[in-house]
Amino acid sequence: MYKEAAILVDTTQCIGCYACEDACAERWGFPITEIHELSSIKNTVVQNWDGIYVPRLCMHCENPTCSSVCPVGAFQKTPEGPVVYDPNKCIGCRYCMQACPFLVPKYQWNTANPKVTKCDMCYDRITAGKQPACVEACPAQARIFGTRKDLLDEAHKRINQNPTQYYPHVFGEEEAGGTSVIYLSSREFSEIGFHSNLPKHALPQYTWNIMSKIPGYVFWGSTLMTGFWWLTNRKREVARFKNNGKSADEQSKKNK
Amino acid sequence: MIKKAIRWFKGMTFWKAFFLITIVLGVYSTIVRFMYGLGAATHLSDSFPWGLWIGFDVLCGVGLAAGGFVTAATVHIFHLDDYKSLLRPSILTAFLGYLLVILALVYDLGRPWNIWHPLIMWNPHSVMFEVGWCVMLYTTVLALEFSPVVFERFKLTRAQRIIQTVTVPLVILGVMLSSLHQSSLGSLYLIVPEKMYPLWYSSNLPYLFFLSAVAVGPAMVTIESYFSSRAFNREIELPILTKLGKVTVVALSVYMVIKIEDIISYNLFKYLITFNLEGILFWAEILIGVLIPIILLSNPVIRMNKTWLFYTSMMVVTGFVLNRMNVSITSLEKFYHASYFPKWTEISITLMIVALGFGAFRLIAEHFPVFPEHEKFSASAAHQFEVILTGDGEYTEEQNRRIPLRN
Predict the structure, then answer these.
(1) Do the chains contact at B172 and A232, CB–CB below 8 Å?
(2) Long-range Cβ pairs for the range A129-135 (8 Å, 24+)
(3) Nearest CA to CA, how far is A177 from chain B (Å)?
(4) Which of B114, B121, B187 lies closest to A207 in CB terms?
(5) What is the pTM of this model?
(6) Which of the residues A38, A68, A72 would you substitute to probe the B interface, choosing the one with the greatest number of B C-beta atoms within 10 Å?
(7) pLDDT digits (tens, 9 = 90+) for B19-72
(8) CATH level 3 topology of A5-209
(9) ipTM reported for the complex, 2 dp
């Protein structure tokens, strides 16, 4: 059993054999296709960026945007590391797809009972003490499995030992608050299909800034509203009683 | 019933035919949507997950229902009795608007049978969770706010008295919920700063959404009054609408100030003078929906002219719709390298939902005391006059005066 499990993807090692794609398809029961784009039948792919093979899969963020935006909590970051999805909770709003900074969640568009699909880091396998199917299938050790801390150390060790071979950055160490799938590359990450404009902190912070203001807003807002109501109501009462030629207080005493 | 239907068909007009075709196409699209899924009925895809139904039906639908909370607050909280005659029609519009938003969500959600899940599965970090709760609670509040009309129609005086005692807390709750809801639709986009075109992303999005809703609320009430005054042969409440125009000017001006602040703090000048699709649509939205209406409505002559007021309100609404579509569709297309344009089935469902809204409004306005001097205008009852009891069970002066005239 692993805690805070992670995958280190070393793109310099990937030979583009697509064994990971096939192992993944087998594990999910998906057909094997030659289209190397994430889709509802493809939870991991290997993409070719000018001769560099780049395996892609869910990044399993430390503070996942998908689990923050999901109205029913269908996405959960597990203590074991993977971000898992529960289709029984899902209402199908697709906010996860809209919000994911890595464009990972995909949708079953052509069914009347659709689910979101994405990699779950073989949650069932790793809780049973096994490795994810793609890691196990990789003949080139381009994907290695371990705890996030160990793999970050390993990544930095590789960069330090081979500064000419590696671009000096571990993608996923800080991007969007850190991810459990981390990358090494020989080139700048924007050249191999990663978005370079991601903030260093976790994205859910943007919404929490405003969501956390709601209780205060409701309290002060309704107090203010009640105040306005009382003021204008009183003003009207006073005006009415003035017309009757009696003081307002006198009249309201009488009413009691 | 059958006779009525036959008469309806005999008196076929252009709009009736349009209504009928819209419904028929909409029903076909509905079958496609629920038999074969979203992929068959829409042009949505993995690279463009939210389209027309979220951009127009939900974002605009909720926004255009803003007249409800603006007038409710004006009448019940600020005690500005002049506006009373606008209260019921705008509450009805808001109520129908929210019901239609829910209907649109049933189409848009992949698993609509789970729509109730946010009730028991909580995630207070999610803006969508807040949106869901606001829709549910505010629709309930609007139903209660509209209920006196139903009680009045069926002379349920006791129920009416009960609902009257809770009116003020209900209205306060309604204002809270709808202001939260309007702004939270903007908050939905706070989490995608790296995906949106810079002209539209701002940490002020919730405030901008709220302010534009406050501005568009009175504009919608004005348009509605204009149309209903023609459809139901009533006098238009011009002096009140003139004052409402001022509310729009103030809200739009504050909106513009925040917009300018955004342009400065996000340094957007270079995008403002880039006339690509985004740039042009941004200018269209600002000119049509904000700047020109501010200039026009600041002029008392225009504010006091029925036709001008109507056209300016139409501009505010058009600008508002443009803004919501820009935020939800235009601003994201470049990032996704997607060129989304709704499929005809998507459009036909939207049209059907809008048509159902118009139909329901007309039907309810004909059969319930929605307008202050409720006049029956259905063909069968056009020449009859019905006595309507007010809440106290007495004739109003107005009606007393009119009964002999009518007979």
Answers:
(1) no
(2) A129/A1, A132/A7, A133/A20, A133/A23, A133/A24, A133/A26, A133/A27, A134/A20, A134/A21, A134/A23, A134/A24, A134/A44, A134/A55, A134/A57, A135/A7, A135/A20
(3) 13
(4) B187
(5) 0.88
(6) A72
(7) 999 999 999 999 999 999 999 999 999 989 999 999 999 999 998 899 899 999
(8) Alpha-Beta Plaits (3.30.70)
(9) 0.88
